């Protein structure tokens, strides 16, 4: 394991950390970067490893919300509390669970066919799709609050998130688009999207422990993996904070431009330069 290899993997960790929270597809970026750097793909273990790093960062950012929701859920279930906070957070948890089901089922069914042999050109096409979806909701200002979410809303957001199983379709972007489409404000849509990310990512990590442990590259590239993991945690944390600021200012258009630019480059690379 030479220093160049370590730098490549650390860069992939940085790329994952920056692109996981923002609506530009981290999986698509990893496909493109590995093609440009000539790093051989070996299943999804490295991506899931980095995805777990992003999960830790998002848990840190939203720790106060998570603790508050858990406390209110406990009060509702075990203490019989029926005040507004307890009822709202109980319904919110139910909505998160419902929204998790579609992607959980789809992920299990498609686990063996997603990830390998995805071309840069295909990723580029999906980035264009992400850009178009963001374009349609960039100026939409919903008014629904957490307590206004319905079962129907949750199913729609969950189905939207299923689209992100395809590299190039942003998970956060799909969830945000779905949440804004059903009427949530941009701030609440972002919060729902990231809290929805937690059970999905945690479930994926738990189901993939064996794949990560048995990764043939782990023994020789453990230092590169570790450094990539640490960098990904830090980068994700600051990327989430930045996205929160972008959403508050209503500047989603910058991600539309970015997806169109990178998508076009990826398609040209596939058919002209590759």
Automatic annotation (TrEMBL):
Q: Which reaction does it catalyse?
A: di-trans,octa-cis-undecaprenyl diphosphate + H2O = di-trans,octa-cis-undecaprenyl phosphate + phosphate + H(+)
Q: What is its EC number?
A: 3.6.1.27
Q: Which GO terms describe its biological process?
A: cell wall organization; peptidoglycan biosynthetic process; regulation of cell shape; response to antibiotic
Q: Which UniProt keywords apply?
A: Antibiotic resistance, Cell membrane, Cell shape, Cell wall biogenesis/degradation, Hydrolase, Membrane, Peptidoglycan synthesis, Transmembrane, Transmembrane helix
Task: Give the location in the cell.
Answer: Cell membrane
User: How would you classify this enzyme at the top EC level?
Assistant: hydrolase
Q: Which GO terms describe its cellular component?
A: plasma membrane
Report how it sits in the membrane. Multi-pass membrane protein
Q: Which residues cross the membrane?
A: 92-111, 117-137, 192-210, 222-240, 252-272
- GO MF: undecaprenyl-diphosphatase activity
Principal localisation: membrane
State what this protein does. Catalyzes the dephosphorylation of undecaprenyl diphosphate (UPP). Confers resistance to bacitracin.
Family note: Belongs to the UppP family.
Also noted in the record is: Bacitracin is thought to be involved in the inhibition of peptidoglycan synthesis by sequestering undecaprenyl diphosphate, thereby reducing the pool of lipid carrier available.
The protein in question is named Undecaprenyl-diphosphatase
What species is given as this protein's source? Jeotgalicoccus saudimassiliensis
